[in-house]
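User: Let's play a game. I give you a shape written as C-alpha cells, and you guess the letters that built it. Ready? Here's round one.
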C-alpha cells in the first residue's frame, strides 16, 4: 500500500529509495546497534541501523532506525516483527527527527502529550512505562469506557484493542434507543490501559466515527 501511494503521489523518486526502506522502531533503552541489527536481520538485508540518543547525555531514547536494501524487506519487518517494537516506515530525513519522534507518539487527534513513552510486547524487556512530570494528572485504572455514535461489532472492537497487549475482556453494549455504541475494556495492567487510551481516544473507527475513550474506576490503587 505504501509503495502504491508513493507511485500515485506524483513523485519521481525511485521506489527503492530510503522512504520505503527505512523503518522506525521502539526499542529497550539498553539495546545497542548490534542488538538492533540482530533482532531485525531475519527480515532482510540491512544496510545500516542507528539508535536515537539524547544529545546532552548520550543515552538512548529507546528509539531506532533500521534501513533495508528493499522495500519488501522493510514491509516484512513491519508486518512480522513483535508488536512491542511499534515498527512503522520512517519519515524522510528532510523532516526533523524531533518532529517525527513527536508524531510517532501522537494519536489521530495529535493531542497526545510528549514524553508519555510506553513500550510493550510479550518479552519482559519491553515491560516498561516511562513517567515524567509532563504526564497528565488524572485518575487512571485498568478499565476503559469506549463510546461511539455508531454501534460496535464485538469481534472487531476486541481486535482493535487487542493490538495493545494485556487485553483481558471487551464487553460491548448497545443503546436500543440511540443505536450508539458502548463498551467496557479491561487490561491486565494500568500501563496497558493508559497506552490504549492515548492511542485510541479520538481514533476514527470506522473512518469518520471518532471513539471516545476514558478511564473507568476499577477500585485499584491508581498510584500503582
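Assistant: Ready! My guess for every position:
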Amino acid at each position: 500500500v505504501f509503495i502504491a501511494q508513493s507511485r500515485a503521489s506524483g513523485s519521481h523518486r525511485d521506489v527503492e529509495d530510503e522512504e520505503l526502506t527505512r523503518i522506525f522502531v521502539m526499542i529497550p533503552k539498553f539495546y545497542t546497534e548490534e542488538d538492533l541489527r540482530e533482532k531485525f536481520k531475519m527480515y532482510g538485508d540491512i544496510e545500516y541501523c542507528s539508535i536515537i540518543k539524547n544529545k546532552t547525555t548520550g543515552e538512548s531514547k529507546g528509539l531506532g532506525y533500521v534501513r533495508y536494501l528493499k522495500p519488501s524487506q522493510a514491509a516484512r519487518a513491519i508486518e512480522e516483527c513483535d508488536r512491542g517494537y511499534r515498527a512503522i516506515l520512517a519519515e524522510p530525513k528532510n523532516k526533523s527527527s524531533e518532529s517525527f519522534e513527536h508524531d510517532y507518539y501522537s494519536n489521530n487527534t495529535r493531542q497526545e502529550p510528549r514524553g508519555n513513552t510506553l513500550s510493550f510486547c510479550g518479552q519482559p524487556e519491553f515491560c516498561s512505562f516511562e513517567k515524567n512530570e509532563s504526564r497528565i494528572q488524572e485518575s487512571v485504572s485498568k478499565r476503559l469506557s469506549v463510546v461511539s455514535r455508531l454501534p460496535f461489532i464485538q469481534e472487531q472492537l476486541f481486535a482493535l484493542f487487542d493490538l495493545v497487549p494485556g487485553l483481558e475482556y471487551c464487553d460491548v453494549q448497545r443503546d436500543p434507543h440511540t443505536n450508539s455504541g458502548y463498551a467496557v475494556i479491561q487490561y491486565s495492567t494500568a500501563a496497558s490501559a493508559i497506552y490504549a487510551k492515548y492511542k485510541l481516544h479520538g481514533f476514527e473507527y470506522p473512518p469518520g466515527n471518532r471513539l471516545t475513550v476514558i478511564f473507568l474506576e476499577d477500585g485499584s490503587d491508581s498510584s500503582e
